[in-house]
């Protein structure tokens, strides 16, 4: 038994090396659109499920209709998830287009979901519409279905473009599709179709397709047929040619404009009769005045003879009264009407050619694209079905300053060109000076967005670095960002666009002011924030801080041990900077970033010390000195330097009340991290140079760790949801020496990855689509019972086990009492899973007792997040214990003891963070309720 090949009009045309074209369907849900597309001559249907409200049933109906109409149904699914890919193929699609491809594995996942064995892992089924719903053995039907199924990954991300050769080489990938609009957006040139970088992207993708025998599709350019033709001549072989919505809108707009022209023609004819409406009889106009011709109607010409004679001129009309069907000849009300044309008696007279405006239309002008300037609508606007608004220059010749001449216009244009040239020269000079000033430890952070250095949105901070002379010309102080802002401002003025949101000066968002505002919030008592609250010890502006190795080595080592939360920091480079600063007699000759890193690392280590009382003044002094170096560091306009410095400031604020508001600093950090695109792309380590202190593939995940820890402890929203994160968690180095990293560093990165896994569990628990509590509890147990193995038991990079227990306890509390924005009921109704409740009680008790034991031994390093975790553990313990029947007084005494220990811990925290005293007062009230007996604690049985 043989199985007939599946009819596939689009594939057959591609095999003939012809250009196939599809019609996108995202508006019309009924199957009539399929027949219309077939009649119109399209080769395929591009059914849009990513950018439409189509459900699976609608998509399947359109696909089946396409199969029976003989037109290929292709579906663009929202993601590579097999629940989308395989189901639309089972529903009748002959091809699947998958967006958001960022790696070779993403493309391989699409192949696995779309192709049957042996190419992929698509689940076999029978009765497919491709075979007229017949039951055919899989051994016979699967190879035929595989041949007919087009797997089309999209090249619309920078990562996919970088890996396009490897993606095209995958077996099972039949074609690639360039998503032009998303690709230009990722390149930083949205909608700039003329940019040579886009052409280079097409050339690179075409080369990969030709090398591996795959077809290339063109997407997102149906309004630019000139570019479509260009790319097809280069080698592209199928095109997303049109979309149902714009086609309908364009045709409707065209007919509406034609009817408006008809109405104007009728009104003009009536006006020419001097107010006497023409009387129409049998299609002939009888309106005659004083023997003159009044016009022609329906092909009847009325002569000026006293005797009424009528000559019929077939299909000939006067220019004034003719009803045209060509949209290019429809007059616009917004333009001055031309003088009435004289009626020609000759049957050979031709209609006037389409008029052209002297200026591009408003839409093409603002989009900086070519405009053919046809009236009443240019080709670009007509194809899209949008209103084409003519631009005009209006001058008041009666004004006092009237007298604009061509010479003056040309002189103004030349002055603009000269100004732009001057600004561009400043850009080059500023970049040259910037590169020459970069020194050891301050690496160039070049983001791979458009091949150029991404500048931060923050402007120039008016602080002159130490030992740097002030240039005599104030203009030289302008940064590259200011220069580019000036160019943008100049463009706004030259184009005469609205300046409602544009000031007379370039925009300068002074990030140092934002950071200073966060630092000004007093960690002891936020209600008493002031501009000086974060700097309690006065220090001369130019007074150097003399540090000794004996005093500071243990503190910076303590910070490095804790830096498992900051895996992006290269410990060896940090210690090199520490040695350079310590060995220097005068830190003025050191780069500001080196001093900043050293000062703040030592200050954080001191703040973590149980003996913080001895070092409080020095830690605050170092923090103040680091904050004063911040403007000169931010002046470099390096995004990674900005993130690094503010992240260290946030860490300091967690352990020291003089550090300001951690929450506000983290909000600023996450905003800048997202603005730099670090949640979507990873910078190549090679671009930063060998002296970089950063492990760039870990910098986003360091911010992620602190954000999740802060938000889950304080009950605040996350800075970013996992749905928008595209970068992968870096793999931990193996147990061998192939990575070239010492064992302590390998241990640290493995543990950092373990912490990221916990943060992702927290995201799942607190997310809007929270999984089952049993599922979350199972994941947490696996995380808790299988910590990462260490490469060397003697490694100095160890993390206290009670810290991992604290993280596990925090997750347990969130499982039994999820945030209010989730859809899970508080306390689960855990009757079916008492082991979760019991485990939570044990975890809370164990955490409080461990921390209490460390506090009595004077070995505890307290952050304000510890206070939040202690309070949560105590309250959760009391509430859950009350749900368990108590048969004797032993349980009551044990509960009272746990709460008392937690109260002691919070009292110690409140000595450093005064606002925490509210937590301690609450636990004292809770202790009183426990002493009053069971009845007074019934309120605790309610949700926490």
Automatic annotation (TrEMBL):
<dbReference type="Pfam" id="PF00172">
    <property type="entry name" value="Zn_clus"/>
</dbReference>
<dbReference type="Pfam" id="PF04082">
    <property type="entry name" value="Fungal_trans"/>
</dbReference>
<dbReference type="InterPro" id="IPR036864">
    <property type="entry name" value="Zn2-C6_fun-type_DNA-bd_sf"/>
</dbReference>
<keyword id="KW-0862">Zinc</keyword>
<dbReference type="GO" id="GO:0005634">
    <property type="term" value="C:nucleus"/>
</dbReference>
<feature type="domain" description="Zn(2)-C6 fungal-type">
    <location>
        <begin position="360"/>
        <end position="390"/>
    </location>
</feature>
<dbReference type="GO" id="GO:0006351">
    <property type="term" value="P:DNA-templated transcription"/>
</dbReference>
<keyword id="KW-0238">DNA-binding</keyword>
<dbReference type="InterPro" id="IPR007219">
    <property type="entry name" value="XnlR_reg_dom"/>
</dbReference>
<dbReference type="InterPro" id="IPR005000">
    <property type="entry name" value="Aldolase/citrate-lyase_domain"/>
</dbReference>
<dbReference type="InterPro" id="IPR015813">
    <property type="entry name" value="Pyrv/PenolPyrv_kinase-like_dom"/>
</dbReference>
<feature type="coiled-coil region">
    <location>
        <begin position="406"/>
        <end position="433"/>
    </location>
</feature>
<dbReference type="GO" id="GO:0043565">
    <property type="term" value="F:sequence-specific DNA binding"/>
</dbReference>
<keyword id="KW-0175">Coiled coil</keyword>
<feature type="compositionally biased region" description="Low complexity">
    <location>
        <begin position="282"/>
        <end position="299"/>
    </location>
</feature>
<feature type="compositionally biased region" description="Basic and acidic residues">
    <location>
        <begin position="323"/>
        <end position="332"/>
    </location>
</feature>
<keyword id="KW-0804">Transcription</keyword>
<dbReference type="InterPro" id="IPR001138">
    <property type="entry name" value="Zn2Cys6_DnaBD"/>
</dbReference>
<dbReference type="Pfam" id="PF03328">
    <property type="entry name" value="HpcH_HpaI"/>
</dbReference>
<keyword id="KW-0479">Metal-binding</keyword>
<keyword id="KW-0539">Nucleus</keyword>
<dbReference type="GO" id="GO:0000981">
    <property type="term" value="F:DNA-binding transcription factor activity, RNA polymerase II-specific"/>
</dbReference>
<protein>
    <recommendedName>
        <fullName>Zn(2)-C6 fungal-type domain-containing protein</fullName>
    </recommendedName>
</protein>
<dbReference type="GO" id="GO:0045944">
    <property type="term" value="P:positive regulation of transcription by RNA polymerase II"/>
</dbReference>
<dbReference type="InterPro" id="IPR040442">
    <property type="entry name" value="Pyrv_kinase-like_dom_sf"/>
</dbReference>
<dbReference type="GO" id="GO:0003824">
    <property type="term" value="F:catalytic activity"/>
</dbReference>
<feature type="region of interest" description="Disordered">
    <location>
        <begin position="276"/>
        <end position="305"/>
    </location>
</feature>
<dbReference type="GO" id="GO:0008270">
    <property type="term" value="F:zinc ion binding"/>
</dbReference>
<dbReference type="InterPro" id="IPR052202">
    <property type="entry name" value="Yeast_MetPath_Reg"/>
</dbReference>
<feature type="region of interest" description="Disordered">
    <location>
        <begin position="321"/>
        <end position="358"/>
    </location>
</feature>
<keyword id="KW-0805">Transcription regulation</keyword>
């Amino acid at each position: 038994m043989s199985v007939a090949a599946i009819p596939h009009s689009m594939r057959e045309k591609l095999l003939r090396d012809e250009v196939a074209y599809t019609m996108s369907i995202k508006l019309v849900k009924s199957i009539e659109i399929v027949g219309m597309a077939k009649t119109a001559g399209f080769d395929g249907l591009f059914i849009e499920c990513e950018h439409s409200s189509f459900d699976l049933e609608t998509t399947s109906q359109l696909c089946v209709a396409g199969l029976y109409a003989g037109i290929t149904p292709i579906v663009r699914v929202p993601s590579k998830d097999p629940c989308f890919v395989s189901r639309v193929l089972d529903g009748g699609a002959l091809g699947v287009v998958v967006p958001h491809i960022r790696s070779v594995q993403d493309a391989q996942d699409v192949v696995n979901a779309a192709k049957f064995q042996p190419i992929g892992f698509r689940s076999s089924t029978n009765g497919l519409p491709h075979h007229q719903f017949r039951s055919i053995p899989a051994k016979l039907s699967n190879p035929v279905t595989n041949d007919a199924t087009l797997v089309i990954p999209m090249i619309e991300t920078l990562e996919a473009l970088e890996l396009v050769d490897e993606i095209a080489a995958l077996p099972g990938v039949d074609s690639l599709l360039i998503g032009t609009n998303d690709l230009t957006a990722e390149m930083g040139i949205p909608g700039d179709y003329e940019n040579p970088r886009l052409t280079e992207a097409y050339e690179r993708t075409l080369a990969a397709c030709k090398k591996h025998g795959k077809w290339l599709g063109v997407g997102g350019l149906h309004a630019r047929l000139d570019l479509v033709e260009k790319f097809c001549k280069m080698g592209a072989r199928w095109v997303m040619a049109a979309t149902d919505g714009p086609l309908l809108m364009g045709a409707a707009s065209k007919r509406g404009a034609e009817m408006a022209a008809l109405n104007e023609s009728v009104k003009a004819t009536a006006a020419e009769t001097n107010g006497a409406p023409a009387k129409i009889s049998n299609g002939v106009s009888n309106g005659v005045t004083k023997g003159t011709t009044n016009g022609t109607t329906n092909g009847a010409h009325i002569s000026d003879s006293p005797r009424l004679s009528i000559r019929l001129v077939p299909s000939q009309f006067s220019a004034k009264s003719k009803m045209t069907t060509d949209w290019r000849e429809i007059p616009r009300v917004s333009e001055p009407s031309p003088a009435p044309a004289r009626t020609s008696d000759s049957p050979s007279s031709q209609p006037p050619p389409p008029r052209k405006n002297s200026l591009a239309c408003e839409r093409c002008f603002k989009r900086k694209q070519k405009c053919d300037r046809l009236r009443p609508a240019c080709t670009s606007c007509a194809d899209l079905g949008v209103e084409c608004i003519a631009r005009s220059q209006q001058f008041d010749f009666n004004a006092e300053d009237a007298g604009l001449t061509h010479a003056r216009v040309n002189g103004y244009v030349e002055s603009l060109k000269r100004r732009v040239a001057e600004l561009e020269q400043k850009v080059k000079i500023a970049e040259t000076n910037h590169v020459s000033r970069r020194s050891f430890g301050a690496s160039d952070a070049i983001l791979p967005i458009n091949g150029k250095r991404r500048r931060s949105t923050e402007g120039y901070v008016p602080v002159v670095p130490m030992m740097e002379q002030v240039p005599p010309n104030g203009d030289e102080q302008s940064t590259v960002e200011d220069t580019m802002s000036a160019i943008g401002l100049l463009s706004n003025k030259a184009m005469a666009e609205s300046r409602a949101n544009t000031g007379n000066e370039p925009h300068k968002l002074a990030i140092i002011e934002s950071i200073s505002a966060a630092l000004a919030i007093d960690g002891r008592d936020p209600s008493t924030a002031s501009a000086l609250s974060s700097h309690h010890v006065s220090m001369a502006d130019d007074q150097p801080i003399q540090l000794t190795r004996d005093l500071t080595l243990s503190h910076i080592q303590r910070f490095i041990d804790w830096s498992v939360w900051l895996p992006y920091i290269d410990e060896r480079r940090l210690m090199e900077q520490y040695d350079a600063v310590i060995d220097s007699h005068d830190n003025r000759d050191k780069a500001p970033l080196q001093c900043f890193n050293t000062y703040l690392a030592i200050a954080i280590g001191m703040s973590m010390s149980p003996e913080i009382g001895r070092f409080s003044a020095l830690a605050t002094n170092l923090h103040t000195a680091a904050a004063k170096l911040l403007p000169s560091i931010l002046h470099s306009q390096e995004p990674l330097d900005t993130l690094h410095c503010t992240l260290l400031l946030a860490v300091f604020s967690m352990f020291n009340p003089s550090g300001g508001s951690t929450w506000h600093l983290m909000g600023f950090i996450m905003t800048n991290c997202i603005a730099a695109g670090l949640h979507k792309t990873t910078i190549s380590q090679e671009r930063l140079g060998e002296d970089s202190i950063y492990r760039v593939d870990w910098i986003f995940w360091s911010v992620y760790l602190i954000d999740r820890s802060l938000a889950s402890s304080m009950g605040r929203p996350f800075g970013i949801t996992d749905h928008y994160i595209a970068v992968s968690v870096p793999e931990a180095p193996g147990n061998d020496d192939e990575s070239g990293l010492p064992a302590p560093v390998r241990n640290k990165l493995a543990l950092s990855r373990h912490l990221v896994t916990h943060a992702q569990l927290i995201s799942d628990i607190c997310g809007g689509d929270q999984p089952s509590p049993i599922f979350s509890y199972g994941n947490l147990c696996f995380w808790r019972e299988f910590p990462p193995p260490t490469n060397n038991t003697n490694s100095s990079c160890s993390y206290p086990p009670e810290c991992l227990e604290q993280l596990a306890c925090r997750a347990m509390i969130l499982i039994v009492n999820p945030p209010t924005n989730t859809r899970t009921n508080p306390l689960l109704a855990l009757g079916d899973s008492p082991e979760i409740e019991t485990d939570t009680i044990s975890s809370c008790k164990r955490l409080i007792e461990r921390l209490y034991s460390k506090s009595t031994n004077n070995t505890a390093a307290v952050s304000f997040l510890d206070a939040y975790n202690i309070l949560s553990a105590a309250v959760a313990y009391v509430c859950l214990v009350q749900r368990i029947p108590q048969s004797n007084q032993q349980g009551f005494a044990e509960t009272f003891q746990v709460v008392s220990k937690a109260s002691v811990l919070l009292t110690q925290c409140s000595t450093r963070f005064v606002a925490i005293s509210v937590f301690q007062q609450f636990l004292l009230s809770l202790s009183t309720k426990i002493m009053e007996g069971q009845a007074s604690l019934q309120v605790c049985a309610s949700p926490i």
